[in-house]
Amino acid sequence: MDFLSDFLTKFGAQLQSPTLGFLLGGIVIAALGSQLAIPDAIYKFIVFMLLIKVGLKGGIAIRESNLTEMLLPALFAAAIGILIVLIASYTLAKLPGIRATDALATGGLFGAVSGSTLAAGITVLDAQGIEYEAWAGALYPFMDIPALVTAIVLASIYTSKQKRDKYHKNEEYIRTETVAAGGYASEQIVPAGGYPTIDQRGTAGGYPGERGGSSGGSSSQPGDAPSQRVKIWPIVKESLQGSALSALLLGIALGLITRPESVVESFYEPLFRGLLSILMLIMGMEAWSRINELRKVAQWYALYAAVAPLLHGFIGFGLGMVAHYATGFTPGGVALLAVIAASSSDISGPPTLRAGIPSANPSAYIGASTAVGTPVAIAIGIPLFVGLSQVMM
């Protein structure tokens, strides 16, 4: 009972944080129909400022620490990102009315990391005076990139399989129709490559999305049955070039190579909490505006988005505890690993997934993340995991 009482006391104290207050304030004024609008350029500038500050402190900490201390948490971060996508493929994707590509895109977004949630978690730890590794923010790309790559690869494999299955069904239908008419399906003879050429398919009537006629061609055209190889590097490159990850990695590089301590203390630190409060206000208004998008898709997304951040956070917390006992990973580091596991990408993830899984419905995965997932991660996840780290360690 002492443990539960202590935890509830600390959890209640976390709920009174300014970070949560501004988030809820944004939701309330948007619900009341306020015309308050903050330009997108200001939003992007605030995100840049927050993440480059996190990166600078992370780079300084990496320069001054033993890199072997990062190894296990980094491996755990990558494993969490991949695991979250796999969980979505075996849970959300199996629910009625859910398309597999939509579920994988949602899993990829929830496996990727929210820079704003990371910044909010760091602010809470600083306010509570909880010790954490400054390089813990550098775990961001270790979780973010594997999650996005896994989601896009699995979606590509699924889409290729669907195309092959559709091709074989059409081929069997044409063969059956030809035989039923008293003829032979001679035009369906498969060449050495394993599939009919476009010309051969065209003489049999063609398939949806394919060219017919006798203009020549090969089976490597888009929409053909053979599976296409998924290229990993373009996915990684696009993730690294995203605005959020670019700012974080730039900060880490500058922290490693230069001596930015003075500018961090005199400029970035004083502005950090003020900028974060504005960001939380923006995210609250954005969360309310996305609710209508979420209503357009199956209600399973709302349930998933409410439960998934906490489930993912507990996975991160559990693996963080393993790192704590194995390498001395601090309580704050454990809480921060849980927080980034609970978060869902709000900046770099959506454009990467739009390009990588074009068939997925953005209303499903962006609506689930922004309208429900991010508020749950910030309003419940941060106080929960910070409180747990305090009472358990």
Automatic annotation (TrEMBL):
Signal peptide (residue range): none
TM annotation in the entry: 20-38, 45-62, 74-92, 104-125, 137-159, 300-319, 364-386
Pfam families, A to Z: Sbt_1
UniProt superkingdom: Bacteria
Region of interest (Disordered), residue spans: 201-227
Biased composition (Gly residues): 203-216
Keyword tags: Membrane, Transmembrane, Transmembrane helix
Protein name: Sodium-dependent bicarbonate transport family permease
